[in-house]
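YM 10:42: DUF2621 domain-containing protein sequence, as discussed on the call
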Amino acid sequence: MNDIFMWGIALWTFIMLGAMTIGGYFMFRKFLKRMPKEDGYSELDWQEHYIDKALPLWNNEARHLLNELVSPVPELFRDVAKERIAGRISKIALDEKADNITLDHIMKGYIIATPKRDHKFMKKKLDDMEIDYSPYEDLFQYADDEKQKFSIFEQTEKISSRS
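YM 10:58: structure's back
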């Protein structure tokens, strides 16, 4: 009986260490995103800035479309993904001096904000929603890539010059 109890404690210890390691990894990533860059603002500060500035440009249809596009993301990560995509969309719309957020802005922001490893799922969702993404095929090269670390807003200058 004593051996079973000791094995249970050992198993519980490994499970807890594993959970703490995984949680620490995600906390450290969030910490790095909060670190200020050369301009004194972090990636998340800029993201919030663009979302706040473009808030009047978002109509109910655009909000609903964004919610639908992020619906395949697991609920635990959905809010983070939505804010990241909304930050990109907002920056693109502000750079183009748009009066409101359109499908064009949403598609551009959605594509470059979605990591390359998730493009298969993204394309499936767009096909399910019957949204033609062929005019935006060239934007897939600017999507987030875990191997290339860059500011989440660097690509918007590249895609503005594409039009």
